[in-house]
Amino acid sequence: MATPLKVAVIGAGVAGLNAARELQRESHHVVVFETSHRLGGTWAYDPRIESDLLGLDPNREIIHGSMYKSLRTNLPRQLMSFTDFKFSDKTYGDERLFPGHQEVLNFLEDFAGFFELTELIRFNTLVTRVEVVDSEIIEFEVESVTNGLNSVDVFDAVVVCNGHNTEPRLATDIPVVIGKGPSAMDLSREIATVAKEVHMSSRSPRIKVSKLEKFSNLWQHAKINCIEKDGMITFEDGISVDADIIFHCTGYKCHVPFLKTNDIVSVQEKRVGPLYKHVFPPKLAPRLSFVGLPEKSLSFLIIECQSKWIAKALSMKVSLPSKDEMLRDVEEHYRDLKEKGLSEAYTHSFEFQTDYIDWVNSQFGMGVEKKLTDMFKYIIHCFMSGNIDGYMNAFSLKYGI
Ligand code: FAD
């Protein structure tokens, strides 16, 4: 039996809670650092807004949460569950299949309580530095600040779970992209109930100018061609509108400001790397790992399987390929993106794929219920065929729930 390790987990959102649970199951000694006074990360809704609305000032007070008050999940409970703790078995006041954010927070609090994770968390503690201090045996110094007091602890392993929806990625150059992801879809529909006109712009080549069904004041346009100082916007479809407000629904940057690894791991706008299968930097594997980087997929299921993989790799119950093999795999992934004409921004973008979850699970002999992947594929099919407004009902009818 492998010696239990002292492991630091940074963040107490979905990723940090799962990592802590799996590490504890493998008898490792876990400390979870959480800068907020509560757990839940993204799902701990905070009504405050940052003083610098574009989030450009690095010294601004950072509000971690990017939830909006009206947000409902875009996945059903079944797809936001964990293998042995199911969201679909529980309700906390909002029984809808696609509940509001408070319901998800209640579920995560219940999860943390059930697995006795809360006592592992150092709340109000911001991690300011994670540094490899001995690259031979691999040890990390973790520096943190709690209520103005600095402390430094040494750990055998670090799991980075700090989320990636806090540092805005802006469309600063013109032509700009305003976005057509789930947030743009949600917000434009909501704003259309109070605004005179809403115009959504996307760089997708498939988009042709059109008015959205069921709305008298919501249009979809191609890419923005230019924005004048007075707010006049011209789209590539030739139409111009005079805008009072521009919302950037253009996503977030990867941001790991505390990580000091002598360039073993680099953090670019949308790429943390090199990371073997989005988790392990080959040179420091398995002692340093990242949970939750994949985007546009089933985050709860991905986070759970990555957490199990890390915990079992640290206990030496699963082995990883050699450093060179892992590095070659990463290089192959980068080459593949290039050949497909995809930029670095797509490094951790899963474009709604589920194969990854199967692959990670196969490393320790588990699988995902086929029913869950079928459900996900059905939701993607609804999105792709433009059924944005009716997919929740369609899903409920198809699965009889
Ligand atoms: P986070 O939830 O961001 O948690 C990170 C934690 O780390 C935070 O608590 C933060 O305070 C802490 N932290 C950060 N830096 C430090 C530091 N230096 N020191 C200490 N602590 C630190 N997923 C779905 O499955 N279904 C949905 O419907 C869905 N809707 C979404 C809607 C929006 C608007 C957004 C932004 C995301 C949505 N997601 C959805 C994806 C969501 O990101 C994941 O569900 C999940 O919350 C990610 O969890 P995480 O733990 O990786 O990150």
The SSE string, one letter per element, is EHEHEEEEEEHEEEEEEEEEEEHHHHH
Bound small-molecule species: flavin-adenine dinucleotide
Number of E strands: 19
Percent in helix:
25-40%
Structural Rg: 22 Å
| Multimerization status | single chain
Stretches where pLDDT is under 50 for at least 5 consecutive residues are none
Dominant shape: globular
Strand content: 15-25%
Which structural class do the helices and strands define? alpha/beta
Question: Spatial order of the strands in the main sheet?
Answer: 3-2-1-7-19
The main β sheet shows up as: 5 strands, parallel
Annotation field: number of helices: 8
Q: Cα distance, first to last residue? A: 44 Å
- Tell me, rounded to a whole number, the average pLDDT: 90
Strand-helix topology:
Blueprint: E1 6-10, H1 14-25, E2 29-33, H2 101-114, E3 121-122, E4 125-134, E5 139-146, E6 149-155, E7 157-160, E8 167-168, H3 182-191, E9 198-201, E10 210-211, E11 218-221, E12 224-227, E13 232-235, E14 240-242, E15 252-253, E16 259-260, E17 266-267, E18 272-273, E19 288-290, H4 299-314, H5 323-339, H6 355-362, H7 370-384, H8 391-399
Parallel strand pairs: 1-2, 1-7, 2-3, 4-16, 7-19, 9-11
Antiparallel strand pairs: 4-5, 5-6, 8-15, 10-11, 12-13, 13-14, 17-18
Helix pairs in contact: 1-4, 4-6, 7-8
The chain binds flavin-adenine dinucleotide.
Describe the structure.
With 401 residues, the chain is of the alpha/beta class. 25% of the residues lie in helices and 19% in strands. It has eight helices and 19 strands. The protein has helices at residues 14-25, 101-114, 182-191, 299-314, 323-339, 355-362, 370-384, 391-399, and strands spanning 6-10, 29-33, 121-122, 125-134, 139-146, 149-155, 157-160, 167-168, 198-201, 210-211, 218-221, 224-227, 232-235, 240-242, 252-253, 259-260, 266-267, 272-273, 288-290. Strands 3-2-1-7-19 form a five-stranded parallel sheet, with helices on one face. It has a four-stranded mixed sheet with strand order 6-5-4-16, with no helix packed on it. Strand 1 (6-10), helix 1 (14-25) and strand 2 (29-33) form a beta-alpha-beta unit. It is globular. It starts with 5 loop residues before the first strand and ends with a helix. The model has no long low-confidence stretch (mean pLDDT 90). The protein binds flavin-adenine dinucleotide (FAD). The site of flavin-adenine dinucleotide has 33 residues, from helix 1, strand 4 and helix 4.
